[in-house]
């Protein structure tokens, strides 16, 4: 029996004859913090959509704690212990910051009182307590990302999947996210972080996976992956020297 928290085996997905994810096999252990990198169009977000139930795989399996969740809907995968932050911000713009987190908590099965208490603590940690009563649509783009980021922790997730969390945000907001990820990882939380921010991946992630043309081309210690010839060529083209 595998000890993996998340195990992907032979995962495949194509669109119009174009293979977007090509027989990907990888595993994430409980408490592991893994970076996922690759050039645009390499299949990273498609892979996340397969993992989180937004696309059904054409072939292969997704297992979460030895439970086969392949092709199950996103809400079932959420209940199994996986939460996700999207590349494009997904928040309830006409609800307040507090209400957004309360909704996430109620979806996770918390009572109204417990959801409000946890939401308050998270907003405080994220530096958003002064905006708890503000409509999220009136907040900056970075603050909206922080609200969505906070919603990932309203449940007790086994794995948090973050798709480009650091894109187009103020360095102060990025630092809050980096600190919270580091704190939660130290406490045993598992993460899969997709990012083009290579310095952030190198700082945060002990292990990194690189995709290109739908396939995993490198998987290992982050510093080793960043100097891998295939990874350098995938990003820069031509020949690595």
Protein architecture, described:
By secondary structure, the protein is α/β, with parallel strands linked by helices. The protein is 36% helix and 25% strand. It has nine helices and ten strands. The strands form two sheets. A six-stranded mixed β-sheet has the order 6-7-8-3-9-10, with helices on both faces. A four-stranded antiparallel β-sheet has the order 2-1-4-5, covered by helices on one side. Strand 9 and strand 10 (215-221) form a beta hairpin. Helix 3 (97-107) packs across helix 4 and helix 3 (97-107) packs parallel to helix 5.
Number of helices: 9
Structural class: alpha/beta
Specify the overall morphology: globular
Q: What series of H and E elements makes up the topology?
A: EEEHEEHEHHHEHEHEEHH
Low-confidence stretches: none
Strand content: 25-35%
Rounded to the nearest angstrom, the radius of gyration is 18 Å
Mean pLDDT level: 94
Strand arrangement, major sheet = 6-7-8-3-9-10
Biggest sheet character: 6 strands, mixed
Roughly how much helix do the residues carry, as a percent range?
25-40%
Can you count the beta strands?
10
N-C termini distance: 42 Å
């Amino acid at each position: 029996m595998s000890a993996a928290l998340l195990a992907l085996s032979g995962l495949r997905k194509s669109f119009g004859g174009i293979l977007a994810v090509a027989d990907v096999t990888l595993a994430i252990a409980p408490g592991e913090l893994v970076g996922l990198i690759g050039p645009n169009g390499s299949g990273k977000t498609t892979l996340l959509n397969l993992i989180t139930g937004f696309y059904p795989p054409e072939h292969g399996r997704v297992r979460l704690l030895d439970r086969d969740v392949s092709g199950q809907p996103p809400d079932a995968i959420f209940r199994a212990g996986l939460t996700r932050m999207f590349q494009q911000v997904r928040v309830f713009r006409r609800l307040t910051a507090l209400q957004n987190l309360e909704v996430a908590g109620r979806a996770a099965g918390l009572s109204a009182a417990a959801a409000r208490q946890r939401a308050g603590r998270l907003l405080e940690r994220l530096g958003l307590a002064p905006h708890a009563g503000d409509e999220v649509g009136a907040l900056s783009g970075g603050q909206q990302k922080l609200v969505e980021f906070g919603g990932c922790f309203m449940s007790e997730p086994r794995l948090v999947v973050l798709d480009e969390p650091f894109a187009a945000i103020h360095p102060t907001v990025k630092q809050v996210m980096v600190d919270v990820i580091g704190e939660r990882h130290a406490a045993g939380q598992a993460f899969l972080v997709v990012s083009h921010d290579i310095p952030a991946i190198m700082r945060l992630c002990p292990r990194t996976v690189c995709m290109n043309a739908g396939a995993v081309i490198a998987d290992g210690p982050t510093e080793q992956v960043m100097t891998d010839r295939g990874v350098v060529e995938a990003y820069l083209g031509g020949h690595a020297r």
